[in-house]
């Protein structure tokens, strides 16, 4: 009997809701450590906001004037590198493992940071940001995959939410560091913030070396024993415990089933698999890929990075007489402290309500900023109202769309296309991040379109579109194993998904399918899994 069939045979679940072991503190901590990757991501977004506003930096890199063109390239080149890094990362994660890819990302990132720190001219700085971006691309795409694949389903949303929390902490740390070094009249003003990035890469790389690879990666490679070992370690249970046997069986059965629907025969076909199936079928790979990439696009369309990339410049423009660095710091603090709210709401209310109402809250706040600014943008009290609503906008983002978009992309892809699907979605986040970073200086620059607060009319309308989008297209994945999410997508539409409940049928129908495969095709597909481990 092929090993995969034997694994499925051994499992005798009497309740589909008991697929997973109870969550132990150790399991929780192991999963949460990976979230540290968010620090790197956030710090990189954050420190550039601060250093491009520093007098010393402007003097050294722009001869007293960092033009809109230069500024947009310095900020956005990282996102371009990250976009490319995220695309490649999906392949690497399937070939070498999720964990190894993240560790490689730390090394590439450290190289990029070294180049930036060595630079005192524009060219090297740009090159360094691009290389660091490649590393962040590996890390940001694969950490989500890693975390979603190892986390117990009951806390998966909260655990992936921790990743967003770390992103916000990274942005805040960058703000604090640049706030502290901004007045230094030496190159240390920007070199210190850049050098601190090594610490994050070191902690993440070393820490991950001690964590296990994901069981789902091993299943995809046909290494069932390794998968069992990893799962047992992650769940804090002996390998032969009923919990491990059942959870492993579900992962294997589901993978088998998905491989029957979307067989993958070579390198190109594994990529093409992401685009198979019809547009009207909400469980088709194509629909999942569109969902993941568009969700990340809409997350960027909320305009959040307008604040995190350019708030120092924007607040200076409002001319309230309060240090713009300090105001930016406030936005980053609110970003940090509002994120943990989502740990509870995402598991209690679910992903859909979070995204729908979060977008509504953001749209309202942004329209208030736009209207107040356009009507009386020079009045000091009105400016205070504007700044308050910018902060409220950040509150809504941080407690909803910030974590929500990452949580959902980790959950909607079936195993055969998961690594590439998550990578494509993350790449989409960075692509739109790049586009926004490029165009923003032209929208608000005093010598350019000079939209000032009116720019919030654009972001507010986008947030309204985010709300409609979430209502029509985002499914509810709360409380389901990744395998049950697959069934749910097949059996319900996004709008009916929150009512879908896992039943015994899913597991047994999958099991039946595998038995048939084994009987009809003498299990060749299962054996192929082991033999052709490097082709998928
Ligand atoms: C977004 C970033 C953003 C950050 C702010 C993340 O989820 O992808 O682009 O800067 O949240 O906290």
UniProtKB/TrEMBL annotation:
Membrane-topology descriptor: Multi-pass membrane protein
Xref: Pfam families: Sugar_tr
Statement: the UniProt record of this protein carries the keyword DNA damage: no
GO MF: carbohydrate:proton symporter activity
PROSITE patterns in UniProt: MFS, SUGAR_TRANSPORT_1, SUGAR_TRANSPORT_2
Localization terms from the record: Membrane
Transmembrane segments: 27-48, 68-89, 96-115, 121-146, 158-180, 192-211, 297-318, 324-343, 355-375, 387-409, 421-444, 456-474
GO CC term, one of those recorded: membrane
Domain of life: Eukaryota
Family: Belongs to the major facilitator superfamily. Sugar transporter (TC 2.A.1.1) family.
Name of protein: Major facilitator superfamily (MFS) profile domain-containing protein
């Amino acid at each position: 009997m092929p090993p995969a069939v034997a694994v499925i045979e051994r499992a005798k679940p009497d309740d589909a809701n008991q697929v997973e072991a109870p969550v132990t503190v150790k399991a929780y901590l192991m999963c949460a450590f990976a979230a540290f990757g968010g620090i790197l991501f956030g710090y990189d977004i954050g420190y550039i906001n601060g250093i491009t506003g520093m007098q010393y930096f402007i003097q050294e890199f722009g001869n007293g004037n960092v033009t809109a063109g230069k500024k947009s390239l310095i900020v956005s080149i990282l996102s371009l590198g990250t976009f490319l890094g995220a695309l490649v990362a999906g392949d690497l994660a399937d070939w070498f493992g999720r964990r190894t890819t993240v560790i490689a990302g730390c090394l590439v990132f450290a190289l990029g940071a070294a180049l930036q720190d060595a630079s005192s001219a524009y060219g090297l700085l740009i090159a360094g940001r691009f290389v660091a971006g490649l590393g962040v691309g590996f890390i940001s795409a694969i950490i989500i995959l890693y975390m979603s694949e190892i986390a117990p389903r009951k806390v998966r949303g909260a655990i992936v939410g921790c990743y967003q929390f770390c992103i916000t902490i990274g942005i805040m740390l960058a703000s604090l560091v640049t706030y502290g070094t901004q007045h230094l009249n030496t190159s240390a003003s920007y070199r210190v913030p850049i050098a601190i990035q090594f610490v994050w890469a070191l902690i993440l790389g070393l820490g991950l070396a001690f964590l296990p690879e994901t069981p789902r990666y091993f299943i995809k490679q046909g290494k069932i024993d390794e998968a069992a070992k990893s799962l047992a370690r992650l769940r804090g249970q002996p390998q032969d415990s009923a919990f491990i046997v059942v959870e492993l069986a579900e992962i294997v059965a589901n993978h088998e089933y998905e491989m029957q629907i979307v067989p993958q025969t070579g390198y190109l076909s594994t990529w093409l698999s992401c685009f198979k199936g019809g547009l009207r079928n909400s469980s088709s790979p194509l629909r999942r890929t569109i969902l993941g990439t568009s969700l990340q696009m809409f997350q960027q369309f909320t305009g959040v990075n307008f604040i995190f990339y350019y708030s120092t410049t924007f607040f200076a423009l409002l001319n309230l007489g309060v240090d713009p660095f300090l105001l930016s710091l406030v936005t980053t603090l609110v970003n940090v402290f509002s994120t943990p709210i989502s740990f509870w709401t995402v598991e209690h209310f679910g992903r859909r309500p979070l995204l729908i109402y979060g977008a509504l809250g953001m749209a309202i706040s942004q329209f208030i900023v736009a209207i107040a600014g356009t009507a009386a943008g020079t009045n000091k009290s009105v400016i205070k109202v504007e700044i308050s609503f910018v902060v409220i906008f950040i509150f809504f983002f941080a407690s909803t769309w910030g974590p929500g978009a990452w949580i959902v992309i980790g959950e909607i892809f079936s195993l055969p296309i998961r690594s590439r699907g998550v990578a494509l979605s993350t790449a989409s986040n960075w692509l739109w991040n790049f586009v926004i970073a490029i165009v923003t200086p032209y929208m608000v620059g005093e010598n350019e379109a000079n939209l000032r607060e009116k720019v919030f009319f654009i972001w507010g309308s986008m947030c309204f579109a985010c709300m409609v989008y979430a209502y029509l297209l985002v499914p509810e994945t709360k409380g389901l194993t990744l395998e049950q999410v697959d069934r749910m997508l097949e059996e319900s539409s996004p709008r009916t998904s929150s009512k879908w409940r896992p039943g015994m049928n899913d597991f047994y129908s999958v099991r039946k399918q595998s038995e048939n495969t084994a009987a009809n095709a003498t299990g060749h597909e299962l054996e192929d899994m082991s033999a052709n481990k490097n082709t998928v």
